[in-house]
Design brief:
five-stranded mixed β-sheet; two-stranded antiparallel sheet; 7 helices; 14% strand; globular
Amino acid sequence: MTPLTHDRYCEEIAHQVGRLRTVVTSGADLSGTVPTTPDWSLEQLVRHLGGALRWVDVMVRTGAEDDVPEDRVPGFDGPGAWGDPGALDAWLAESGELVVGALREAGPDAKVWSWAGIHNAGFWARRMTHEVTVHRADATLAAGLPYEVAPEIAADAVDEWLEIVEWAQRTLPDDTVHDLRGPRRTIHLHATETRPEVHSEWVIELDEEGVSWRRGHEKATVALRGPLTSVLLAFYRRLPLDAPGLDVLGDRKLLESWLERATFG
């Protein structure tokens, strides 16, 4: 399975922003701590995400050749009043409309700087899809609401995370991913529900050369099994490994070591 189409990513960003807006207006405590990102309140999380969407909008609209400082992004910090769900919702809605509009207008091949060395708007469409998908999980779980995500989005989010880990391994000499080097060991991610059009299994190999991965079913040093959404959230450290529906088979400490060190910078 290759990455999804540019239009599909744009569609999903709009969908995820819409779902996040329902959390903002659900009556949830905006000042409450988000357990999966404990340095942030729910409102701080939403402002972080909306600011990121606006930053990408500016990057794409201007065809940026380098990083754009946050102070050059209109409305980056969010509405002036804190604790106002209506104002936060309106700002978030506009943030989503801006970035989706910019990405659709640019198309996937438009040249835009990125930190990953993939200098096109298609990179940002994919990256922001999964940024919103995972942060919506943070917000939804904090509000005690049910969370779900389309299978093809969840599978692509796992792929992208593994690609980012490989990028960190190639590019960041001090990243903790290098601590995973050693004798050959393998991690198997196994989503228990399957669809022909969506891959559901991954094998991560750790050895003296570092991290590599492939899709497939193999006996491994440790396996993480469960519904695809739960596997995604556990892999992103949004669910504990002993969450209902998840099973860890084999060397649990290896999986815990991966989750601690494969953290993207």
